[in-house]
Amino acid sequence: QVQLVESGGGLVQAGGSLRLSCAASGRTFSGLAMGWFRQAPGKEREFVSTISRSGRNTYSADSVKGRFTISRDNAKNTVDLQMNSLKPEDTAVYYCAAALGSELWYVPKFHYEYQYWGQGTQVTVSS
After folding, report:
1. ∠ CA 115-49-41 to the nearest 5 degrees?
2. Cα 127 from chain centroid (whole Å)
3. What pLDDT digit, counting tens, does each position of 51-90 carry?
4. Where are the beta strands (DSSP E) in 52-110?
């Protein structure tokens, strides 16, 4: 089992920044590819960003490219999402997710590739 706990959400004005963090426990962190997803009210959960087990490969949704950066610290068992130039449409509950069994370089992009999920943290961007 893998436990994931997100932190860092909150209320911010458009154009501002937030940094989300996800702490993992229960399994060797370097064996997990990690990702961030989000779900806005009335919408389906959508992919945001992912990082490979090694941390060398990342991939982000077009909607956040150039604004959001994912990173991981395998020594601290954490994965972060730095969010800059936030927009009202970024408002959502953000979920951290972990994927087992991937290659060292692989970046999983689909929700069904992830076996473990955090409880989510609310991000609200006001206009």
Report:
1. 80
2. 23
3. 999 999 999 999 999 999 999 999 999 999 999 999 999 9
4. 58-60, 68-73, 78-83, 92-100
Judge whether 87 and 14 are in contact, CB under 8 Å.
Answer: yes
What residues are paired with 124 via a beta bridge?
11
Task: Return the residue matching tokens 């941390």.
Answer: 55
Contact 91, 81 (CB under 8 A): no
Write the CB contacts of 101 (distance below 8 Å, at least 6 apart in sequence).
Answer: none
- How far is 55 from 16, CA to CA, in rounded Å? 26
Q: Give backbone dihedrals phi and psi of 31, rounded to 5 degrees, phi first.
A: -90, 5
Using only the alpha carbons of the chain, give its radius of gyration: 13
Of 113, 90, 122, which Cα lies nearest the Cα of 34? 113
Q: For 39-51, write each residue's pLDDT tens digit.
A: 999 999 999 999 9
